[in-house]
Amino acid sequence: MTEVSAVEEKRRRDVPVGVVMVGMAAIVWWPAFTLGAWQEIFFDDILALWAASTAAFVFVLVERKPIGGRLVRAMLLLLPSLWIFLNFVVEDETTDLAVAIVDLFALAAVLVGIPFTLWVLVRIVWPDFAAETRRRTKWLIAVVVLGVAVGALFLGINHPHFLTCDDFAISGNSEPAGCTPEPE
Question: Considering only CA atoms, which of 179, 25, 11 is closest in space to residue 115?
């Protein structure tokens, strides 16, 4: 193999890593930003997670792999569904403990569900990705995506420093508490 073709081959192997990294970062930034700006993750983000994790759940159940590992992945993919189910079961008039349990499932659905669902989706799209990708590269992806999420959370918390109330209104979002009014 010539030096040019070896470099080209390495570059081709790097492309999926870049696609995965950018795709995951693009998905996690908005829920992290809303958590910072509004102190909550919007229902549409959780329902999008539910839709993706439900589809991934079905795929994991029917894929041709040993049942042991599939069951663990399938159960983790059900976290968003369990959160939705608990919302139907636990009503507003119930105890603080029941509400805390629902909130705990919501937190687990987001903190575990988003990255885990993204990883399963990557494995569905590129079945050999995990086997062909070095551990160091996987950690790089995780650190970059986590960095984007933390950065978006920080930006959401500090939105008054670079966004105005009008920016939120024009984009179709409600104005978060503490937003900066448009200068007159």
Answer: 25
